[in-house]
Design a protein that fits this description.
Blueprint (H helix, E strand, L loop, with lengths): L9 E5 L4 H12 L3 E6 L2 H14 L5 E5 L5 H11 L6 E4 L24
Parallel strand pairs: 1-2, 1-4, 2-3
Helix pairs in contact: 1-2
Bound molecules: NADP nicotinamide-adenine-dinucleotide phosphate (NAP).
The site of NADP nicotinamide-adenine-dinucleotide phosphate has 24 residues, from helix 1.
C-alpha cells in the first residue's frame, strides 16, 4: 500500500471537517494512521470520523471542536494533548475567501485565511 510509513503513526489534522483536511484524513486513515481531527463544526467532524473509521482498519480517530482563531480554544486543545506522542501535524484550518466575480466586475480576486 502507498503511504506505508503512516501506519501506526498519529496525525493531527486541523480543518478536518471539510475539503482538503477531510480528504487528507480519509487518505491517512486508509494508510493506517491514527487521527486527531480538529475543526469548529462538531457534526461535520463526526462525518469525517465515520468515513475515516470505515477507511482505516484498527485505527483510533478522535475529534476536537476547536476554533483555531481563539487562543483560549487552542490553549485548551494543547493542554489535552500534553504527554501524547504526535508524529505529524497537518495545520490546514482556514479557508479561501474570494469574492465571486460578477459579470460587470473588473475587480481582481484575493485570498485570505479565516484565522
Ligand atoms: N482550496 C484551495 O484552492 C486552496 C488554495 C490555497 C490555499 N488553501 C488553503 O488550504 C486550506 C484548506 O482549504 P479547503 O479548500 O479545504 O477549505 P474548506 O473546504 O473551506 O475547509 C476549511 C476547513 O478549515 C476549517 N476551519 C476554518 N476556519 C477554522 C477555524 N477558525 N478554526 C478551526 N477550523 C477552521 C473548516 O472547518 P469548520 O468550518 O468546521 O471550522 C474546514 O474544515 C485552507 O487553509 C486554505 O486557505 C486552499
Amino acid at each position: 500500500m502507498a503511504f506505508k510509513r503512516l501506519e501506526g503513526k498519529t496525525a493531527i489534522i486541523t480543518g478536518a471537517s471539510a475539503g482538503i483536511g477531510a480528504a487528507t484524513a480519509k487518505l491517512f486513515a486508509s494508510a493506517g494512521c491514527n487521527l486527531v481531527l480538529v475543526a469548529r463544526r462538531a457534526d461535520k467532524l463526526e462525518e469525517t470520523k465515520k468515513a475515516c473509521e470505515a477507511a482505516g482498519k484498527s485505527i483510533q480517530v478522535e475529534v476536537h471542536t476547536v476554533d483555531a482563531s481563539k487562543v483560549s480554544d487552542l490553549s485548551a486543545f494543547v493542554d489535552k494533548l500534553k504527554g501524547r506522542k504526535i508524529d505529524i501535524l497537518i495545520n490546514n484550518a482556514g479557508g479561501v475567501r474570494a469574492p465571486r466575480p460578477s459579470a460587470t466586475s473588473t475587480r481582481t480576486t484575493s485570498t485570505s485565511c479565516s484565522r
